[in-house]
Structures are given as C-alpha cells and as structure tokens.
Design brief:
413 residues; 3 domains; D-amino Acid Aminotransferase, Chain A, domain 1; 4-stranded antiparallel beta sheet; Dna Ligase, domain 1
C-alpha cells in the first residue's frame, strides 16, 4: 500500500502546528486526492525548508543554517493565508517533494524554499514545480539561479547600465587582482544571504588581507568569493510586491518613476507596489561594524536599529524606488523582492545596488515585513498580496478578484 503524506511526520509537522487549537486533525491525503477547497479560496501548499530537516553534509560554517526556516515562521505564513479563506497544508522542499506533490491536487504553491545545498539551491524547488506543471509564487528557475549568485546578478546590472560597486569573482586566492579595484575592498561568499560570511574581517585594506579572506571564504563556504569596492555610506533597502504589466516588463523603467504616492509613504506603478525605504542606523550600535553583518542581522527586533521610512530627500527616495523596480525587471523577478543599496557619502548619496533578494524573507520580523508594517500594512496583507500576485500571473484570479472576500476578512487585513 502506498503511504499517504500524513504518514510522513517530517512533511506534516507544520500542518498540525499551524492549525488552530480547536481544529480537527487534517485528514490524510491519499494518492490523487484533492486538497479541500474553501468556498472562495485556493488550495495552497506552503513549501518550506526547516533548519531541523537540513541534511548533515560534514563540516559546515557556524551560520550554515541561517537562511532556513522555523516551524513558527511557517505557521505564520499559513495563518495569514488561511485568514484569506485558503486551504493550506505544508511540505518540506526536500528530495521527496516530487513524489508528494504528484499525489495532490494543488492550485498554487507558496514557495519559501531557500534550498538545503547546491550552487543553485533556490532554483531547485521551482524547477521541480515547472516539471510537474504546478503554479508557484516568486521568481522562476533562471531568475533565482541568477540572483542567488551575486556575481551573476552584478553582471546583469552592469549590462543593464545600473550602478553597482566594481567587483571581481575569486575562484582561487591566487588570482590576480583587477587593476580597476581600489582598497578598501569587501569580501563575502558569492552565493549566500542573511549576512552569512560577513563580519569584521570582511573589509580588507591590503592585498595580504584580501588573499587571507578569500582563502577563508573558499575553504569555509566551499564557493567562490565576491570581492567588490567598499562603498562608504548608508545601508538602505527597498521592498516591493506585485508584477509589472507585460508592456512595462519589456522596457526600461522611466526616470523619474511617475508612480502614485500612497498615504503610508509607498508608491504604486503599473502593477507594482513599492514600500517605504528602510535604513540601518549604525549610530545606534556603535560597538558594531558600520555594515550589514551577520551580527546585525541577528539582533532582536527591539534592538534592530532600522528607520522606516528612512530620512532621505524625496528625490533620493524616488531614485531608489526607480532603481529597485528596474532591478526587479532586468532580473526577471516576480511577485515580491527586496533590493539592497549602499548610498555613497562621498558622492552625494549616490545609490549603488548591492544585490536583489528575489526570494526575500517573509517572517514576521523580516526586513520586507518591517517595510510593509511601516506603511500601515498588516502582516496578513503582505503574505496575501504575494500569493495574489502569483495567482493572477497564472490566471487563478483576475484583476477584479480580491483575497479579502468578506467583511470579516477585510477586518483581518
């Protein structure tokens, strides 16, 4: 007898966690059985990668699991989607995912999988979903493979004429340093996020320090090192949700961006909503380095020194919004993203694009969430808007549809 998904506790632990206390247990999903659909909602599978399920691959850096999720966060995603009337279950994005999804009748997957291993790990689950033919939220395979790779992203930015610090990818510590680069330089793993591999030693001021740091990244993380010119200045980030219209996706974003400002400080433009800019205020953490390190990322919310909206001139904030949307466009990102910048204090706060997060964190305390909350959105509204953006792309909802199908759900937003 073929076992049901319910019989695999690793796959359903989240489902039981995310259900209300008085809910009846979810029935087993036997082969070819449909997930029950609510009257107005969709059948949604939340795909996740939990820290506790990470495979043991021998020695690994101390921050190796930083990008993986917790049951608490996954329960928050599910609760927000259920509040909009969807039926939600959860599956871990592990090698058994193909087998489990083939048994289900699913409308769309809400993808949060960072991937457990591999140089294109964020693109692995989307590749499986593409092969099966199941709709999903977020960037597609090529997008997530490119944007996980910081050097590949920067090559796209350079080819598109967008400002990014000069850089060089090191696959060996003995490579000759490009004559275009000037110290100080900044060294980090090429295919990691969440501040992984970034600490006091990341900024180097001599070739000897550079070689030592590159060697450390190569050995500790098992991947190439990205070396870029250090931009003295301010760290800001710009998040967005939605999708460009087909016409706008095919042409450069106009400068200035002619969007409509919202009362909360955001901007709407041709299907995309841009949240207020957020800034890390390093003056509030003088004992830490003035750049976004792993230690800064790990600060509890009460101690996290962010300012949103960031205290910026309207002209600078508008330019950041334009560059964020254009980066979203040229990397072919979808549904939601967050773009990180450094504002050069020696160049009148000229913005330099550090990277785009095409699969940014969506936890209740992630940077994208904090930007949405600062504008007056609820957490539920953010999660529901990401799903809505993906559902509309696949024709599962039309422009007149809303995830908020009744007055009670309007109250929840």
């Amino acid at each position: 007898m073929t076992p049901s998904i319910k019989e695999d506790p690793a796959q359903y632990a989240f489902e039981e966690l995310a259900q209300p206390e008085n809910a009846t247990p979810t029935e087993a999903v036997s082969p070819q059985k449909k997930i029950p659909r609510t009257r107005h909602g969709l059948r949604v599978v939340v795909l996740h990668n939990l820290r506790k399920h990470a495979p043991q691959n021998g020695p690994r850096p101390a921050d190796a699991l930083a990008e993986l999720d917790s049951e608490t966060n996954v329960a928050a995603y599910a609760a927000a989607l259920r509040a909009a009337g969807h039926h939600v279950i959860g599956l871990d994005g592990n090698p058994d995912l193909f087998r489990h999804l083939k048994r289900l009748k699913v409308d769309i997957c809400f993808n949060t999988c960072e991937g457990y291993r591999g140089d294109g790990r964020e693109a692995q689950v989307p590749a499986v979903l593409e092969m099966i033919g199941i709709p999903y939220t977020g960037g597609k395979v090529t997008c997530l493979a490119n944007t996980l790779d910081k050097a590949a992203t920067k090559r796209i930015l350079v080819a598109s004429g967008l400002p990014t610090p000069r850089f060089q990818e090191f696959t060996h510590a003995g490579l000759a340093l490009s004559p275009e680069l000037r110290f100080p330089l900044f060294v980090k793993p090429n295919r990691e996020g969440t501040g992984m591999g970034i600490d006091t030693g990341s900024m180097v001021r001599s070739e000897a320090q550079l070689r030592e740091r590159v060697e450390y990244i190569l050995k500790e993380y098992g991947e190439s090192a990205l070396v870029e010119e250090y931009i003295p200045g301010r760290d800001v980030t710009c998040g967005l949700v939605g999708n460009l219209t087909a016409l706008e996706a095919g042409q450069a974003v106009p400068d200035p961006l002619p969007g409509d400002r919202t009362p909360g400080g955001g901007m709407d433009w041709n299907g995309v909503h841009v949240f207020p800019i957020s800034e890390v205020d390093y003056s509030r953490i003088p004992d830490m380095d003035p750049f976004y390190s792993r230690k800064v990322k790990e600060l509890p919310l009460a101690a996290y020194p962010y300012l949103c909206p960031a205290p910026l001139l309207t002209s600078i904030a508008s330019d950041l919004a334009r560059l964020a949307v254009e980066t979203f466009r040229v990397t072919q990102s979808l549904d939601f993203a967050r773009v990180d910048f450094r504002l050069h204090t020696g160049e009148n706060l000229k913005p330099y694009i550090l990277e785009i997060n095409s699969l940014p964190g969506l936890t209740p305390i992630s940077d994208l969430t904090l930007c949405a909350l600062a504008e007056g959105w609820s957490y539920n509204r953010l999660i529901q808007s990401v799903l809505e953006a993906g559902a509309k792309r696949y024709g599962l909802m039309n422009g007149a549809d809303s995830l908020l199908v009744n007055d009670e759900q309007k109250r929840l937003i």
